[in-house]
Amino acid sequence: MSEIDEITALLKKANDKLISSKLLYEGEQYASSVSASYYAMFITAKALLISKNSRPKSHNGLISEFGLHFVKEDTFNSETFKYLSRTQSLREEADYDAFDDITKSIARLKINQTEEFMKESK
């Protein structure tokens, strides 16, 4: 598979995660919606990093590399970039904690931020 094919497939997967996030939100599964929103941004960032020949091995590594390759070079809005790192901690809470504080309004905010992040990525 070529690099272009891989990037295209990842961007489709990211879009699918955003769709899943919205469906989970509609089903009042707010924590799962936030997790899917995070992965939509994460996969989008991963696709963009492949275009820079960067393949980080961890979530923190990906966020760090994305900041270096895109935010520091002023090709990606720094405020929009923060959505990714801020949502990572919520995703961990949603996925691993027995109890979470993720509300309907938080899940809606994360969907909106994910849409903005993905739009900025184009």
Describe the protein.
The protein is mainly alpha-helical. It has one domain (3-120): Up-down Bundle (Four Helix Bundle (Hemerythrin (Met), subunit A)). 77% of the residues lie in helices and 0% in strands. Helix 1 runs antiparallel to helix 2. The longest helix has 24 residues, at 3-26.
CATH topology: Four Helix Bundle (Hemerythrin (Met), subunit A)
Top CATH class: Mainly Alpha
The helix count comes to: 5
Corresponding CATH architecture: Up-down Bundle
- The secondary-structure element order is HHHHH
Spans where pLDDT lies below 50 across 5 or more residues? none
**Got a strand count?**
0
Name the beta content range.
Answer: under 5%
Number of domains: 1
Q: By helix and strand content, what is the structural category?
A: mainly alpha
Fold topology:
Layout: H1 3-26, H2 30-50, H3 59-71, H4 78-96, H5 104-120
Summarize, please.
With 122 residues, the chain is mostly helical. It has helices at residues 3-26, 30-50, 59-71, 78-96, 104-120.
Keywords for this entry:
Four Helix Bundle (Hemerythrin (Met), subunit A); 77% helix; globular; 0% strand; 122 residues; 5 helices; mainly alpha
